[in-house]
Specification:
Distance between the termini: 42 Å
Mean pLDDT: 80
Structural class: alpha+beta
Number of helices: 9
Largest sheet: 6 strands, mixed
Helix content: 25-40%
Number of strands: 9
Strand content: 5-15%
Low-confidence stretches: 57-65
């Protein structure tokens, strides 16, 4: 997104735009968007993911990240491509949509979601003024700059940026400010307060034929995998899973991969916003898919 001081208004948009009209306008100003059902749930845009059957929701025990070949659902489906937005994969979703959502992290933004009056009062006393959008129960405070998304950083306050979507409720009012350290500190404090555990990296025991005639082959494969992960701009879950799958398929059966090698991949994934838990799940699911 080209950073602006606030969201521009569209002078050409019809008085009563459809959700697709709104989405196309938002995509045009750099906000990756997606359709939402009534109730703020994302659509499943393929049969495998209808009603989140693939387990994309955090509270569901999924067999693995969604592997849809086309735009699917939630923040990973958000796009600024008008051809995707108007294409056949989403045609029915737009007809049934109850709202439009956007991926703030994909546009270099962070939304502080304030759920009630007490949270709004806290923000006014502790955070710098910025663009404010009224919501049903509280307000969205929008800042320039992306960061890790974390819910419940304090009572009534969620931080939504990377790997999250936010319902579009209008441009709001006020000049958009840079993401303050006070917001980043909320997420750091939340992370420290949790009982964290290191990622468990399971390395294949070996036994299969070895394709590595020299260490260079393995090193090149790992370097390409790191570049694929770090270069991903959207659908991070899917990219990480498919990259792990490819690495294990090519290099994981003979026992040449060490814990240090796999930790390199986990580090690259976590630098893109994946949690240690997501990395563990993607690695385990890739091994299961390959029968390892």
């Amino acid at each position: 997104m080209t950073h602006t001081t606030d969201f521009p208004r569209d002078p050409h948009q019809p008085a009563l735009p459809t959700h697709l009209d709104t989405a196309l306008w938002l995509a045009g100003i750099g906000l990756p968007v997606l359709p939402l059902r009534e109730g703020k749930e994302p659509f499943g845009n393929c049969r495998a993911c209808t009603r989140s059957a693939c387990g994309d929701r955090p509270h569901m025990k999924a067999a693995g990240p969604c592997q849809c070949p086309a735009p699917c659902h939630a923040w990973g489906a958000a796009t600024t491509d008008p051809n995707v937005l108007t294409g056949p994969a989403w045609a029915r979703s737009w007809r049934q949509a109850g709202a439009v959502a956007y991926h703030p992290g994909g546009a270099g933004l962070t939304v502080v979601d304030l759920d009630d009056d007490a949270a709004v009062t806290w923000a006014r006393e502790n955070l710098p003024a910025t663009t404010v959008v009224p919501t049903t129960r509280g307000e969205h405070w929008i800042y320039r700059g992306a960061m890790q998304s974390t819910n419940a950083v304090r009572p009534g306050v969620d931080v939504k940026s990377t790997m999250a979507y936010v319902r579009w409720r209008g441009p709001g009012a006020g000049t958009m400010a840079a993401l303050p350290d006070a917001v980043r500190a909320l997420v750091v404090k939340k992370s420290v307060s949790r009982q964290t555990r290191p990622a468990v990296v399971s390395v294949p025991a070996g036994g299969g034929p070895c394709p590595h005639r020299s260490p260079v082959y393995l090193e090149r494969g790992l370097a390409m995998a790191e570049l694929r992960i770090t270069g991903a701009r959207e659908a991070i879950h899917r990219t990480v899973y498919r990259t792990f799958l490819a690495v294990l398929s090519a290099h994981g059966r003979c026992g040449c991969m060490t814990k240090a090698h796999t930790e390199r991949l986990f580090t690259a994934a976590q630098a893109k916003g994946e949690s240690a838990r997501h990395c563990e799940d993607a690695w385990s699911n890739a091994r299961t898919a390959l029968g390892m």
